[in-house]
Specification:
The chain has 238 residues and is α/β, with parallel strands linked by helices. The chain has one domain (5-20, 73-237): HAD superfamily/HAD-like (Rossmann fold, 3-Layer(aba) Sandwich). Helices cover 42% and strands 17% of the residues. The chain has helices spanning 20-28, 31-42, 48-57, 64-71, 80-89, 102-111, 149-155, 186-195, 205-216, 225-237, and strands spanning 5-9, 93-101, 118-127, 130-134, 162-167, 181-184, 200-201. Helix 2 (31-42) packs antiparallel against helix 3 and helix 5 (80-89) packs parallel to helix 9 (205-216). The two termini are 31 Å apart.
Length: 238
C-alpha cells in the first residue's frame, strides 16, 4: 500500500457504549455537582485538568474492588472487534487517545480481549485515600483536554501519512482539526457541522470499516488542506 494510514480513536462513548468517566462520577460521586463542574468546563471557565481534579474530589470512598465491579458492566461498541481485525489485516496503525483514565481503559480493554491495543490517557491509581489522578500529557497551551490529543497525533504521524480520527465528544474537537479524515457522532458531529469541517457520520464501527475500505483501493488519497495548514502552524511554533 502506497500510503501509511494512522488511525486515532477516542475511548469513552466511542469505543465504549457509554462515557465511563461521566458514569463513574454519577455512580460514585454527586451527580448534580459533577454536572455543574462539567458545564463550567464547557463554558471554558476552567481548564480540563482542573475540571477532572474537581470531579475526583467528589469521590471520597471509592475502592478498587467496587470500581472493578462497575467496569465489568461497561460494554464495547458494536463492530469494534471487527474494526480491530480490519486494522490488523490491512496494517493500519490504531492508537486510542483518551481524556479518561488509564486504570479503567486498561481494565475494559483487557476484559474484552484487547490487551495489545496502544493507548495514551491520563493516569489514575488507587491509594488508601481513594483514587488519585495525574496528567502526564497535559499541555499548558491547550485548555480543551488534559491529555493533549493534538500533540499525540502530531508526534505519532508524519506529513506523508494519512490520518484518521474517530470520536464523539468535546475533547475530540481540537484533535480533529489536524487530521485528514474524521468520523464523528453526537457532540463532535454537531461541532463539525457548526464549524463546517468535513466529516463522515457513523453509528458503529462497521460504518467506519465500510468507509475506510474504498480509501485503501485508491492510488492517491487526498489530504485535507485545512489539516495540513494546521499541522504546519504547530511545526512552526517548534
Amino acid at each position: 500500500m502506497a500510503h501509511q494510514i494512522k488511525i486515532f480513536c477516542d475511548f469513552d462513548g466511542t469505543i465504549t457504549t457509554k462515557d465511563v468517566g461521566e458514569h463513574m462520577f454519577l455512580e460514585f460521586g454527586d451527580g448534580d455537582k459533577a454536572y455543574s463542574i462539567f458545564q463550567r468546563w464547557v463554558r471554558k471557565e476552567i481548564g480540563f485538568t482542573q475540571e477532572r481534579r474537581e470531579l475526583f474530589d467528589l469521590i471520597t470512598d471509592l475502592t478498587a474492588i467496587d470500581f472493578d465491579k462497575f467496569l465489568k458492566t461497561i460494554e464495547i461498541g458494536y463492530g469494534f472487534n471487527e474494526f480491530v481485525q480490519f486494522c490488523n489485516q490491512n496494517s493500519l496503525d490504531l492508537t486510542i487517545l483518551s481524556d479518561g483514565m488509564d486504570y479503567y481503559i486498561k481494565k475494559i480493554l483487557s476484559n474484552n480481549g484487547f490487551d495489545n491495543l496502544l493507548y495514551h490517557s491520563n493516569s489514575m491509581v488507587f491509594t488508601e485515600d481513594g483514587p488519585k489522578v495525574s496528567f502526564p500529557y497535559s499541555d499548558e497551551e491547550c485548555k480543551e483536554c488534559a491529555n493533549c490529543k493534538r500533540n499525540h497525533i502530531i508526534e505519532n504521524s508524519s506529513d506523508d501519512d494519512i490520518t484518521i480520527y474517530i470520536g464523539d465528544g468535546y475533547s475530540d474537537t481540537c484533535p480533529i482539526q489536524y487530521v485528514d479524515y474524521i468520523f464523528a457522532k453526537k457532540t463532535l458531529l454537531k461541532f463539525c457541522e457548526k464549524e463546517r469541517i468535513s466529516y463522515y457520520p457513523f453509528k458503529n464501527f462497521k460504518d467506519v470499516v465500510n468507509r475506510i475500505k474504498p480509501l485503501l483501493e485508491k492510488k492517491r488519497i487526498k489530504k485535507r488542506h485545512q489539516a495540513v495548514l494546521k499541522r504546519k502552524s504547530v511545526y512552526a511554533q517548534g
